[in-house]
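Lab notebook, bench 4. Still working through the backlog of constructs that have no structural model yet. Next entry is a single chain of 79 residues. Request: give me the structure tokens for it.
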Amino acid sequence: MESTGLNNERLIALIILITLAYTSSIMSGEKIKKKGVVKYVGRVKEKRRMQRHHSSFYIGLHGYVWAESLDFFSEQTAK
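Model written out:
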């Protein structure tokens, strides 16, 4: 760690930032799962797999993009 020039304060700040982002994604994923729209966000990509296998973290990350694109396309079709 000494050769990288990283000091303790910056390392702790980086770890806290990563923890907050990870927690936020998990909480978003849990909220999406409770809404019942996870089948649209985390679609099965393998042909023979019948059950979804995505974590709340994955659903949280991709759910945000899915919701934003849904809003964008609904606005575009309204024009």
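Notes after review: Helices lie at 8-35, 38-41, 56-78. The CA atoms of residues 59 and 73 lie 20 Å apart. Flag for follow-up if needed.
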